[in-house]
């Protein structure tokens, strides 16, 4: 001790140790208290930022039973969703639909000033309820509400802005859409049907319809002019379609229909475009409904340019390739716009017989004399990505998005013509060329630098000190070296 010049007597040590323990205990105490007292309402002035040490969910508001919580849910490592969470199952029942990604960073802030606002200093307001309320409250059915205190008016509720999930007794109206978490698929209501749409072409809205469930009207009929329909997930175990009153115009019953289920129910539009129903047993969710039961009937079960054989699974439209994750083709042919720009209108053609669209009954078509006529119509039209033709009916279906999964059928007179954007090969050549050019350039620059330096040194032998001080002789050489290294780095990417 003396050697280091420090003098501690035993009293100092005890003081230090005690204060250390007090600090630890108070820290532990405050974090334990924080965890156990998630508030049941948020009032004006509330502010929260994501805690960097939370790895999954940071609760901010709880319902009266402690079953649900509003909080920050960590997604993709460093992003967040403002979500309503079922705590026991860690299932997200609702999330705020922000236009872009929200970072799990100290700068991201949720506050309540009458509106519940999610903001970030870089982009400003990311999401807001745009209300002038007094408190934020979470119902025991997972409905997040903004209320006015005096007349208990509800100014805003999450049930009016569903994400991908509906819970029991939530009213789904024709003004709403249920959208899958990947943004590809949506469920919407028509005048007398539930429609499911795929956004395979980002320029179209709502996109390609792939499933249409029309009301059966067994118990009550839809009356024109009596207003739009709405859909409610009923506690009895069915998806009920209603127009007026409580007699359904359509009932889609689940496997657990009219069984005594004590737990809650939910339906969700899945990332594969299916709609599934679940009930909670107290420890897990059980699937008791699927809108599409045959995987080949899903809009893209085998990914882009995939082929689904009922009962057998996935292969590729081009039988020389094997399916890889996300489909059978390079990313240039994944969902994107048209082939109308000059550079894009270079493609190769793929043909396959014995194939058809899983949702062809919902597609528009043109009648044509032959497959050649159908192919030509698609070939001459840069918004067309492919065409399917049935020789027996003469129907020609043209698609304005990259091919998704087709279904294999025994009938070889059902034929397809598909465009494949040529990108992958070109890109590889480009990379090699870039690397070569980069190396050449780098070498020339280094050589130039060395010669320059050599020349400079020869010329300035007499005034060496002056050059070094100004850094003229050395600086450019270093810069050139760094630049050439950077160009190599870029090329290797
Ligand atoms: C709450 O904050 C947002 C974002 O800063 C602002 O646009 C809004 O006007 C504020 N609302 C009230 C009631 O102050
Ligand atoms: C949920 O809250 C309502 C009143 O808002 C109450 O009638 C009902 O019993 C509560 N349910 C549960 C399971 O606590
Ligand atoms: C559901 O919403 C529709 C349209 O807003 C409305 O007419 C209907 O009464 C609502 N039903 C229930 C049970 O809340
Ligand atoms: C379901 O429960 C109700 C009362 O909780 C009871 O009257 C009914 O018989 C039960 N039904 C079945 C199928 O168990
Ligand atoms: C692939 O398909 C082509 C044309 O549809 C056919 O001629 C060829 O025999 C097939 N090859 C294999 C390995 O199945
Ligand atoms: C298509 O149908 C026509 C008559 O409708 C027939 O002549 C022709 O052979 C058929 N082509 C194929 C490939 O089956
Ligand atoms: C081109 O194809 C699209 C569908 O892909 C279709 O809507 C459009 O009418 C076609 N244009 C012409 C000129 O045929
Ligand atoms: C749906 C759900 O999780 N319900 C639970 C809510 O909390 C009570 C106890 O507080 C449980 O009994 C419910 O199962």
UniProtKB/TrEMBL annotation:
GO terms for biological process: recognition of pollen. This is Apple domain-containing protein. Involved in sporophytic self-incompatibility system (the inability of flowering plants to achieve self-fertilization). The chain crosses the membrane at residues 432-456. SUPFAM superfamilies: alpha-D-mannose-specific plant lectins. Residues 1-35 form the signal peptide. Keywords: Disulfide bond, Glycoprotein, Membrane, Signal, Transmembrane, Transmembrane helix. It comes from the Eukaryota. PROSITE patterns: PAN. It holds the Pfam family S_locus_glycop. Residues 340-422 form the Apple domain. The keyword Disulfide bond applies. InterPro entries: Bulb-type_lectin_dom (IPR001480), Bulb-type_lectin_dom_sf (IPR036426), G-type_lectin_kinases/EP1-like (IPR051343), Pan_app (IPR003609), S_locus_glycoprot_dom (IPR000858), SLSG/EP1 (IPR035446). The keyword Cytoplasm does not apply.
């Amino acid at each position: 001790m003396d050697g280091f010049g420090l003098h501690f007597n035993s009293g100092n040590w005890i003081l230090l140790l005690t204060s250390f323990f007090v600090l630890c205990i108070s820290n532990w105490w405050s974090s334990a208290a924080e965890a156990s007292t998630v508030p049941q309402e948020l009032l004006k002035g509330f502010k929260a930022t994501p805690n960097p040490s939370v790895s999954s969910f940071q609760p901010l508001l709880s319902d009266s039973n402690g079953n649900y919580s509003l909080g920050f849910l960590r997604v993709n490592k460093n992003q967040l969703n403002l979500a309503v969470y079922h705590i026991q199952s860690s299932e997200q029942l609702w999330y705020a639909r922000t236009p872009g990604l929200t970072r799990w960073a100290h700068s991201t802030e949720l506050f309540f000033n009458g509106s519940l606002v999610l903001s970030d200093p870089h982009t400003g307001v990311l999401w807001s309820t745009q209300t002038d309320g007094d408190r934020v409250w979470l119902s025991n059915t997972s409905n997040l509400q903004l209320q006015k205190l005096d007349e208990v008016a509800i100014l805003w509720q999450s049930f009016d802005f569903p994400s991908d999930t509906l819970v029991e007794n939530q009213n789904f109206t024709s003004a709403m859409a249920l959208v899958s978490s990947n943004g590809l698929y949506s469920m919407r209501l028509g005048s007398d049907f539930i429609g499911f749409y795929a956004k395979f072409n980002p320029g179209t809205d709502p996109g390609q319809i792939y499933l249409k469930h029309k009301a059966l009207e067994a118990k009550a009929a839809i009356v024109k002019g009596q207003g739009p329909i709405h859909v409610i997930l009923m506690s009895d175990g069915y998806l009920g379609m209603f127009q007026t009153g409580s007699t359904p115009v359509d009932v889609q019953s689940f496997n657990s229909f009219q069984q005594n289920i004590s737990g809650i129910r939910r339906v969700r539009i899945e990332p594969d475009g299916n709609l599934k129903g679940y009930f909670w047993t107290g420890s897990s969710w059980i699937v008791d409904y699927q809108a599409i039961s045959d995987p080949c009937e899903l809009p893209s079960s085998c990914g882009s340019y995939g082929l689904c054989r009922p009962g057998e699974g996935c292969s590729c439209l081009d039988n020389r390739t094997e399916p890889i994750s996300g489909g059978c083709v390079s990313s240039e042919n994944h969902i994107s716009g048209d082939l109308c720009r000059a550079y894009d209108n270079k493609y190769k053609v793929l043909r396959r017989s014995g194939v058809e669209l899983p949702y062809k009954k919902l597609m528009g078509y043109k009648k044509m004399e032959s497959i050649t006529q159908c192919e030509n119509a698609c070939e001459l039209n840069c918004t067309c990505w492919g065409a399917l033709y049935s020789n027996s009916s003469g129907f020609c279906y043209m698609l304005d998005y990259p091919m998704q999964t087709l279904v294999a059928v025994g009938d070889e007179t059902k034929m397809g013509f598909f465009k494949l954007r040529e990108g992958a090969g070109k890109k590889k050549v480009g990379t090699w060329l870039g690397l070569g050019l980069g190396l050449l350039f780098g070498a020339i620059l280094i050589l130039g630098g060395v010669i320059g330096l050599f020349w400079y040194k020869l010329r300035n032998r007499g005034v060496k000190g002056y050059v070094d001080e100004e850094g003229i002789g050395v600086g450019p050489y270093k810069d050139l070296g760094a630049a050439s290294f950077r160009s190599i780095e870029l090329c290797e990417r």
